[in-house]
Design goal:
The structure is a homodimer of 163-residue chains. Chain A has 163 residues and is mainly alpha-helical. Chain A is 60% helix and 7% strand. The radius of gyration of chain A is 19 Å and the shape is globular. Chain A binds a DNA duplex (30 and 30 nucleotides) through residues 19-20, 23, 27, 41, 43, 58-60, 68-76, 78, 94-98.
DNA sequence: GGATGTTATATAACGTGTTATAGATTAAAT
DNA sequence: ATTTAATCTATAACACGTTATATAACATCC
């Protein structure tokens, strides 16, 4: 067994480590979404959520809202368009801007997600790291160990069986 | 100003958020490396560090050590080969395995990095989040705010001027 | 000792982030 | 009013992770 260098090096590799844990968490989240039979990527949710919360947003505002760069927002918005979850139209006052809004299908997805999926994911993540405390490196180690012991999907209350 | 949805949604978007912070941290780390005039990517360091710590490793062991999948390890190792930092040779007992070892150039880079760069990066990250405590979401918020206020390169002791 | 399965690495195809840059539209300036 | 600058979105090229699969070498089993 080889040691985990990223973990060993601590603060020095914190960037790599956060990325790595984030990727793992998102993959686990995706699994919960897939198990629920929804056809959407975990990374696309924040876009829909942003519009749901703030109303129609431009590409630039979406980028800001989800914390990525504008080309990334353009691409993901294109995917959501293809999927039929959002609509895009020129802003009436400024033809450079494109206002992205939820379609009925998109709103349905959000409404359903709010009821069924989001609480499950949030609860699973809270179960994983909600009670942690202390220095961040220790918390990260606990999260990694926790994920290795039981992925998010196994921490999700909806998996319970009613006997 | 648009609200930061990923932040607002808390545990629900924790995967996205960790990734995002990790990417930011790594970009900042890269800046420190570049300013020091070294020609290496932040993400390549853990590979060299792993070999430095454990001696020559196979591709599979490297993947384990840095916590990524084997194809990723194959690719990064290929880059390090091109850069002349590592060497690769068939394992004497098992011709399927390739042992990756540091070249003199690679060892020099590591030695120099240990002395000059790594302490600087570790100190900057520690300055950013070493004293944090409490629930992880609050720590992440503090890290994001901290990075926005002053990137790693500005927290790095080597920038001090001797008057 | 040759067929069959396992293991290690390589390669291909893709996802999703980035930076750099082009094109269109609006705002500002002379 | 026309030129110039700024802003917004799109596109291209790249970085670096993933999964799936191919190929080569070793191990095992009649």
């Amino acid at each position: 067994m080889v040691e985990d260098v990223v973990r060993t090096l601590g603060f020095l590799c914190m960037g790599s480590r956060l990325r790595r844990i984030g990727e793992r968490l998102q993959a686990d989240t995706q699994q919960v979404i897939d198990e629920a039979g929804l056809s959407i990527q975990a990374g696309q949710y924040p876009f829909l959520a942003a519009i749901d919360r703030a109303g129609p947003l431009t590409i630039g505002e979406l980028a800001q809202a989800v914390g990525i760069t504008q080309p990334g927002a353009t691409r993901t918005t294109g995917q959501l368009l293809e999927l039929g979850y959002v609509d895009m139209q020129l802003a009436p006052d400024d033809q450079r801007r494109r206002l992205v809004s939820l379609t009925d299908k998109g709103q349905d997805l959000i409404d359903h997600s709010k009821k069924v999926i989001w609480p499950r994911i949030a609860a699973a993540v809270a179960d994983l790291c909600g009670d942690l405390d202390g220095p961040i490196l220790e918390q990260l180690a606990a999260i990694e160990d926790g994920l290795a012991a039981a992925p998010l999907a196994r921490r999700s209350p909806a998996k319970e069986e009613t006997p």
